[in-house]
Description:
By secondary structure, chain A is of the alpha/beta class. Chain A has 8 helices and 9 strands.
Amino acid sequence: xxxxxxxxxxxxxxxxxxxxxxxxxxxxxxxxxxxxxxxxxxxxxxxxxxxxxxxxxxxxxxxxxxxxxxxxxxxxxxxxxxxxxxxxxxxxxxxxxxxxxxxxxxxxxxxxxxxxxxxxxxxxxxxxxxxxxxxxxxxxxxxxxxxxxxxxxxxxxxxxxxxxxxxxxxxxxxxxxxxxxxxxxxxxxxxxxxxxxxxxxxxxxxxxxxxxxxxxxxxxxxxxxxxxxxxxxxxxxxxxxxxxxxxxxx
Amino acid sequence: xxxxxxxxxxxxxxxxxxxxxxxxxxxxxxxxxxxxxxxxxxxxxxxxxxxxxxxxxxxxxxxxxxxxxxxxxxxxxxxxxxxxxxxxxxxxxxxxxxxxxxxxxxxxxxxxxxxxxxxxxxxxxxxxxxxxxxxxxxxxxxxxxxxxxxxxxxxxxxxxxxxxxxxxxxxxxxxxxxxxxxxxxxxxxxxxxxxxxxxxxxxxxxxxxxxxxxxxxxxxxxxxxxxxxxxxxxxxxxxxxxxxxxxxxxxxxxxxxxxxxxxxxxxxxxxxxxxxxxxxxxxxxxxxxxxxxxxxxxxxxxxxxxxxxxxxxxxxxxxxxxxxxxxxxxxxxxxxxxxxxxxxxxxxxxxxxxxxxxxxxxxxxxxxxxxxxxxxxxxxxxxxxxxxxxxxxxxxxxxxxxxxxxxxxxxxxxxxxxxxxxxxxxxxxxxxxxxxxxxxxxxxxxxxxxxxxxxxxxxxxxxxxxxxxxxxxxxxxxxxxxxxxxxxxxx
Lengths: 250, 491
Ligand SMILES: Cc1cc2nc3c(=O)[nH]c(=O)nc-3n(C[C@H](O)[C@H](O)[C@H](O)COP(=O)(O)OP(=O)(O)OC[C@H]3O[C@@H](n4cnc5c(N)ncnc54)[C@H](O)[C@@H]3O)c2cc1C
Ligand SMILES: NC(=O)c1ccc[n+]([C@@H]2O[C@H](COP(=O)([O-])OP(=O)(O)OC[C@H]3O[C@@H](n4cnc5c(N)ncnc54)[C@H](OP(=O)(O)O)[C@@H]3O)[C@@H](O)[C@H]2O)c1
């Protein structure tokens, strides 16, 4: 076993980045608990991992992260069944489609609930325990979309920005207790979420993204853009004054 | 009878015949029947003089499965008429010497593709049934035998049997995968797969190591129709078993805007020039100088890094069925780059849960012996109802080794060491590829009662034990013993 982590929990592990990241961790020797809504999909991910690395390497748990009340008890159960988690990764996320002149609160609410509030519900649980244990790592999958409010997805940009800020606060609270908090900001990644969008600039596969995320977590990074080229790009984009940005049509 | 006497008896001179891998050779009198009558005549002559007989399709078995040294070899490639293809059902009726190439060329324009194909389009239906071949879709669509509705088989006694899962079911399930030991397939009725486009949609994934390959395949096996992995066998440590994976699915009805166009032969045909300039027929000559450890290590590394760069990011790409399935035929005669010693392929089938450990161990053994396969191919399988099946609920790993006069002994030793590891894991081997297995180990693959059942059927259908190949003599010497002779000797 070469991994820094023994037992990891991934929320949003039934497809895309979460599923690929679970495979990376399992490959390194980490046992993984996989959480999401679609049981069939979770089962597929589990089967892949256990066929390759043994029955003990993965377990699945079904939940909807917008059922916020379920989080504490389920977290407790997973923590016990996995015999103590030391890594918790929140990768659940949704993006909703709509024209630029649409303002649909139902969609806004869903996006904030899955991308931000669900994250708080689950990572608060992790933070409480890790602070007490004075060890552990918490990871949130944000997005480059959280760095700037573009025209396209107001709810998604807001939720990801909120999530990044929440993670920063957690880090400021927890690092003095020996707990690692990592914010991951991927650019466009080819996953079911982006399926209908066609080719995007600098798009990477979920496998490539997962490998880079895994490396960032293992190295204990605070924030990591995936792939790294987004760091300078977003640095420039963040520095564009609002007055110009709004005229750029992006 | 010795070869000289057989030459006289059959009025033909001997020829040199080799296994596809060019590492095993034999001398045989070769005959080319064109009808069942021709076959019956040859069988009568064989019975009369006690001449041993083997069948051969296009000789695509890597080792000695379609050789019969110093005796009679019946080549069925002129027994090659397609009798019918029903456009409504996709049921093909054909003589056993019809090749996969003839099959798909005839059927693709009508919207049908062979349900299971090997990595080359040249094998005959008879050869495919005898070995019960699998494709890159084995775990999902089974072996070729599972798509055979019926066949006719001529026994060495001259009786033509009709077999299907219902009629002569026991013979049906033993002759398919029965490596030519029970009789000669004459006619095959095969159900083809309906396709709605000449293309399939292919996703390419860069693979870090063997565990990643297995996990990816098993996670996505419901989502795709074909899965095949390429492995760079030169790397060790964390990258042991790195490579590339291609996953493909049939295009759904209505999704191809021009199905007639993509199902045209001109669309399916493999290009005759590489990059539009070099005639492909020359390619193997350019490959020859790099088919050595140094060149192949570099080539594998370049291929790996380029496959990582070019992996699918977004929707998969479309590729013609022929191009996807018969990649190995792109470079005609590529095997000649392995001359003068030729090549062997070592393919082992291992239960899923033991695959990573076992196949990883095989690569390590290769490294320790300093005999590295130049090509590795990984596939997913499932069990099937045929008596001597090679498939398991697991994965197969095919490794191509260059054979030289110097390494031959060492290579065979390595294969024997690998046999032990595979058999310990409950694994199996495949006669279409095998060149090195020993008799004792061949008997460890299947339960004794299955082998006895097969031997009993062979005694019934071939009482003089005339149907033999180099492979059957190497692995199952007991099949060559006439029960009547044993009984009288014992008596
Ligand atoms: C490049 C390459 C790729 C390949 N890829 C695959 C693959 O992906 N999957 C796979 O399963 N195999 C694969 N093979 C192996 C190949 O499909 C089998 O060896 C197949 O049996 C070859 O058919 P053939 O007509 O050349 O038969 P031969 O090699 O000539 O004969 C094979 C066996 O069939 C018997 N036989 C032939 N005709 C008859 C008949 N009419 N009646 C009774 N017995 C008969 C012979 O006695 C012999 O035992 C590959 C081979 C090559 C060279
Ligand atoms: N793809 C990109 O370009 C990109 C870029 C930047 C950031 N990201 C972020 O990366 C993360 C992973 O997304 P992805 O691209 O891998 O997409 P994905 O394949 O759609 O994965 C999303 C995951 O979230 C889970 N999920 C969604 N709603 C849920 C709910 N209500 N309850 C429980 N689980 C829920 C999904 O599982 P179920 O549907 O089974 O519940 C799935 O496992 C997301 O946070 C996304 O915002 C993606």
